[in-house]
Amino acid sequence: MVMQHRKTRTRSRRLQIGVAVVALVVGILVLTNPDEKDFEAWLGSEYGIHVSYDVNDGRRFTELTSDGEKTLQFVNGHSRKLGILSTYRYLLKDEDGKELQVKGTGILNRFVNK
Fold first, then answer.
1. b vs e for 65-103, b when ≥16 Cβ sit within 10 Å of the residue's Cβ?
2. Is the pTM of this model over 0.85?
3. Using an 8 Å Cβ cutoff, are 93 and 112 in contact?
């Protein structure tokens, strides 16, 4: 009878530890979920597309190329925040009408190409 009680107590303790570890991991993922400003900073480092804000014009997208700067027009975008990760998609158009779609998935304060 004593052995059975110890087994039950050990299982219960393992379950408590397991739940605590899962809760801790989920909490870390939620706290380190990158936001849209992080995505825009990632655009600059990954693609050379820099975002600036103007009171009159709103958001401005500028791509740095070997030929100089190109102004990009924001066509549309989509973002999804899922608590532990985020996905972002921007569709941009340059002066020649060429479209550029940029996607990224963010987790742990980092982005990866989607």
1. eeeeebebeeeeeeeeeeebbbbbbbebeeeeeeebebe
2. no
3. no
